[in-house]
Amino acid sequence: MTKIIAIHSYRGGTGKSNLTANVATMVAQAGNGNRVAIVDTDLPSPGIHVLFGLNEDQMKNNLNGYLWRKYPIEKAALDVSHIMNKKAANSAMYLVPSSIKVSDISRILREGFDFEFMLEGFKNLTKSLKLDYLFIDTHPGLNQETLVSLTISDMVLYIMRPDSQDFQGTAVTVDVARKLQVPKIRIVINKALKEYNFAQLAQEVESNYKIRVAGIIEQSDEVMRLASKGIFAARYPDNQISKVIQGIARQVMT
Ligand SMILES: Nc1ncnc2c1ncn2[C@@H]1O[C@H](COP(=O)(O)OP(=O)(O)OP(=O)(O)O)[C@@H](O)[C@H]1O
Ligand SMILES: [Mg+2]
Asked: Per the CB 3.0–4.6 Å rule, which of 49, 143, 229, 248 could disulfide with 97?
């Protein structure tokens, strides 16, 4: 059975794409031959391809093309296994990017797309690539494509910053995941200042939302310096942030 994990946040810029790419990579290189794919469902503002060093030319086939019924979804899956810093036998990693062409983005915004067909695409992708894990990187906020993704997810990771706007917004989105009966819901706190008491912060969030905190990632100059030009946890495996990401990956796998 393929495990489907949605990564979501109420507000933008919380670190969804960075976390998705990092956790997915850690799951792929866990050592037991995991086959992993990420789908960038952030059709209005795609970005996760940047972390894998892909440019527009390499992304001629993409989720948009599948949604417009030009080719099967597996034709849009790019092998990004090179990103792993240790590649276990049989493991593999794929990315289905969204188009960054302005005309494609405006067509999506103008016409929308068939949500059921997107779900069918997820199913076809898991079958044809024999996936163990499918990660869905989402557009922030509550929108139909996220809601539809949640209905088929085994797990959702909510990313929030320790900011009052995030606190309130996360309450709304977590409620939606509960109503949709997502089997496993976890919160990741990102961009926490080093001076915070992390244990206390986790406790506050857990008692507020009645949801377990999968990890707290500090606000980091090193992450900013990397500027989404790579997978932090693969580049700096011994860094404290990488350890937290590895811990989140373990929770995805159990
Ligand atoms: N722990 C961190 N410390 C410092 N900077 C971070 C951290 N996590 C993410 N960032 C930075 O925050 C910015 C936003 O990250 P990212 O693109 O992953 O967020 P996002 O939630 O996917 O955004 P969007 O809502 O636009 O899709 C990036 O510049 C990234 O490098
Ligand atoms: Mg993003």
From this structure: 49
Confidence (pTM): 0.97
Look at the domain 3-253 and name its fold.
Rossmann fold (3.40.50)
Ligand 1, atom 5, lies closest to the CA of 224
pLDDT tens-place string over residues 108-165? 999 999 999 999 999 999 999 999 999 999 999 988 888 999 999 999 999 999 998 8
Concatenated DSSP letters for the chain?
--EEEEEE-SSTTSSHHHHHHHHHHHHHTSSS--EEEEEE--TTS--GGGGGT--GGGGSS-HHHHHTTSS-GGGG-EE-GGG-SS--TT-EEEEEPPP--HHHHHHHHHH---HHHHHHHHHHHHHHTT-SEEEEE--SSS-HHHHHHHHT-SEEEEEE-SSHHHHHHHHHHHHHHHHTT-SEEEEEEEEE-TTS-HHHHHHHHHHHHS-EEEEEEE--HHHHHHTTSS-HHHH-TTSHHHHHHHHHHHHHH-
- Closest ligand 1 atom to Cα of 221: 4
Ligand 1 atom nearest to CA at 226: 31
Residue 40 beta carbon below 6 angstroms from any ligand 1 atom: no
22 lines ligand 1 (CB under 6 A): no
Distance from residue 158's CA to the centre of ligand 1 (Å): 14
pLDDT of amino acid 89 = 81
Q: Give the start-to-end residue ranges of the domains of the chain.
A: 3-253
Ligand 1 contact via 228 beta carbon (within 6 Å): yes
- Does the C-beta of 98 come closer than 6 Å to ligand 1? no
Instruction: Name the residue with the closest Cα to ligand 1, atom 10.
Output: 15
Q: Is 81 in the pocket of ligand 1 (CB under 6 A)?
A: no
